[in-house]
Amino acid sequence: MTSLFKYKKGTKQKMSKYNFDYLDELEAEAIHILREVAGQFEKPALLFSGGKDSITLVRLAEKAFRPGKFPFPLVHIDTGHNFQETIDYRDEMVERLGERLIVGSVQQSIDEGKVVEQKGKNASRNALQTVTLLDTIEQYQFDACIGGARRDEEKARAKERIFSVRDEFGQWDPKRQRPELWNIYNGKIHKGENVRVFPISNWTELDVWNYIRRENIALPSIYFAHERDVITRNGQLMAASPYLNMDDEDVVERKKVRFRTVGDISCTAAIASEADQIDDIIAEISQSKISERGARMDDKVSEAAMEDRKKGGYF
Question: How far apart (Å, rounded) are the C-alpha atoms in residues 40 and 179?
Answer without folding.
Answer: 17
